[in-house]
Design goal:
Layout lengths: L24 H14 L11 H8 L8 H4 L3 H4 L1
């Protein structure tokens, strides 16, 4: 049986991290343009959608006028 294995020394140049390559300006411009198109911009609120509210609350018991909401035993018949 032989002794422990030895690891050869590694030059310092192989252990350093190199900076990533710079992308071409055309690629940077394309990415920036795509991000601008997809980014949501704040907008002023528009008028309320009355049609949506009418549909949402139509047919609900609280949407009827107060006299029509009163229970009348002679109407159930």
């Amino acid at each position: 049986m032989t002794g422990p294995a030895t690891i050869p020394p590694v030059p310092d140049a192989q252990l350093t991290l190199r900076p990533p390559p710079e992308p071409p300006p055309e690629i940077v411009a394309a990415i920036a343009a795509a991000a601008q198109l997809l980014w949501l911009r704040p907008q002023a609120p528009g008028p309320p959608d009355e049609g949506h509210l009418a549909w949402r609350f139509s047919g609900r018991w609280w949407a009827r006028p107060m006299p029509m909401r009163r229970e009348r035993p002679w109407v159930r018949g």
